Amino acid sequence: MELTLNIYKNNKEIEKTYKASEFDLMWGTMEDLLSAVGVDGLDNLNDTAALSKIISALLPQVKPLLKQIFDGVTDSEIRRTKAKELVPIFIEAFTYAFSELGVLSNKSGN
Predict the structure, then answer these.
(1) What is the number of structural domains in the chain?
(2) Which residues contact 76 (CB under 8 A, 6 or more apart)?
(3) pLDDT at site 88
(4) Hey, what long-range contacts does 31-37 have (CB within 8 A, 24 or more apart)?
(5) How much is the pLDDT for 101?
(6) How many Cα atoms occupy the beta-carbon half-sphere of 38 within 13 Å?
(7) Which domain holds residue 91?
(8) pLDDT tens digits along 21-80
(9) Which region holds residue 22: left if phi is over 0, alpha if psi is between -120 and 50, else beta?
(10) Within 13 Å and on the Cβ side, how many CA atoms surround 70?
């Protein structure tokens, strides 16, 4: 798995690209992501109003998440990313967070 974050100049030209082939999320970040979405929120991803609430709750987590995944990225660079390109990154981060929680619950159950 390789994640890519493009930084744009003038909204069209790629100025810089960050790549991450693997990443570790801090427990606090996973907590923040999961509490923002909530378990019930995952059932309502096709509901526009519910999705709006989830996105609003996640906005404060965007920069810390990207900074954990892409070493060295700055706040000003994050402002020059395209929102549509962030979706695969968030999907991968959520998938990772849930898989890690599954691993943790399996280990604690033994």
Answers:
(1) 1
(2) none
(3) 84
(4) 32/61, 32/64, 33/58, 33/61, 33/65, 33/93, 33/94, 33/97, 34/97, 34/101, 36/61, 37/94
(5) 67
(6) 12
(7) 3-108
(8) 877 777 787 777 777 666 555 555 566 666 667 667 777 778 888 998 899 999 999 999
(9) beta
(10) 22
Instruction: Record the tokens describing residue 27, joined without a space.
Output: 């427990």
Alpha-carbon distance of 41 to 51, in angstroms, equals 8
Between the alpha carbon of residue 99 and those of residues 80, 95, 103, the distances in Å are 30, 6, 6
Indicate the SS3 state at residue 71: coil
3-state percent helix, strand, coil for the chain, nearest multiple of 5: 60, 15, 25
* Radius of gyration of the CA atoms of the chain, in A: 15
Predicted model pTM: 0.70
Length of the chain: 110
